[in-house]
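Could someone model 6-O-phosphono-beta-D-glucopyranose with this protein?
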Amino acid sequence: MSDTSRWRGSLCLEVNPLPNTIIIFGASGDLTGRKLLPALFSLFRRGLLHEKSRIVGCARTPMTDDAYRERLRTGWLAELRSPELERFLELVSYVHGDYGDADFYARIGRRLDEVESAAGGGGFTGRIFYLAMPPELYSAVVPQLAAAGLLTESASGLPWRHVVLEKPFGHDLDSARQLDRELHRHLTERQIYRIDHYLGKETVQNLMILRFANTIFEPVWNAGFVDSVEISIAESVGVEHRAGYFDRTGLLRDMFQNHLLELLALVAMEPPAGSDADSIRDEKLKLLRSLRPIPPDAIGRQVVRAQYTAGAVNGIAVPGYREERDVAPGSETETCVAMRLYVDNWRWRGVPFLLRSGKRLAAKSSRIIIRFKPVPHSVFAPLTAADLAPNRLVIDIQPSEGMRLELQAKEPGPKLCMGTLSLDFKYASILDDGQNMPDAYERLLLDCMLGDQTLFIRSDTILRAWELLTPILEAWQRGDPAAGELLFYPAGSPGPVAAERKLGFAP
Ligand code: BG6
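Reply:
Sure, complex below.
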């Protein structure tokens, strides 16, 4: 085996974490059932949850340990039933109480000591407090955890006390700063793991590798060769059971503040000094700092917002957004946003970055398209340069994960017959039969157990994202005429296409 392949071999092995106790607040909630417990169970099956690790669910609903395990067995994990499930359930216990009650935290503390010493991990076990709950509760829970001494680490930082938070991280710049101040009163930045589940997706992790482990892309990854970059997250689902949350939040906060700006940063940032968390996060921040803020009088020209009306998705009739349960009548909340941004640095000067995301669109598809410039001159008269389709690199984040490079090539037949040829790669082609792409939450939970913050968002990046988006939100809120009007699109359609074309989106 050559040196290189030996390295690749060892990098392909997962690092096994030390014992950790994962304490899930909001343990009876949707996120815990749909994502966290299935991800932990999968890690357990893959041998990536240390045998001394334990899971303690915490929530308001009164329930015994056995009743909680039964809920997992017959509900959330029922479909994943396998011989290992009973062994996994032995790791799980449950504590109920009121989030504002100091006694709840004292009981949690006692339970942690009990389960850890029974498992033989004792004082060596790292603790991960996962707050799978509405962010309004963060400022109740974190100070209580701190007051109960549950966040205190020794000077060495080991065993660690990590807190995992789900978005939204604030509602605007001021509230994000306020949340940050509250968290930093009790925690250092090293202890805070802010989740953006897009960063845990395999295809998103691949962006760094594609760019910086190959030589062929980087020389053309700049304004000299790239015409535009499009980043799109389209969903066919509506607001489902989260209408109340969504109606207060809107799509710009829900998808742009985190997922879209993070994707943009990964596509456009400079090569980091290394692959450690801070080198990468420094570059992402630097990129976001280079994004040109949209001046208030240009919002209407650079941003489109729209809301879905009644329509049909995959042939099934669905109500309009305003008719959804828990949506305020006459709501002005946007369910689709498209935006043109520019990065003011040497590499990207003048290249439009076109970002869009929407709900209830025709199909689910998250993708990045790098559109290269046309050839400068055609030697194939009578064809002109404009007749030759420019190259595109299309990165499919999901579904049908993969990528394709579109080239002009000769078609068999007459001498100058040419057309677009795709070099197409699908991840499915390298997976074993029945094997799925690993779930983002597995990667993120594992990294948190390993103390690796690379795929988690740093506070300064969050604040920079809010700095860029808050003026847009405020202009919409004021009904500023220069910020444009709310448009409408039928559910199941491609969205507000005409307005998006004006921003520069390709047909
Ligand atoms: C979440 C948003 O962060 O991402 C949801 O709050 C959205 O509104 C979801 O539906 C999309 O995630 P995915 O992984 O299904 O593309």
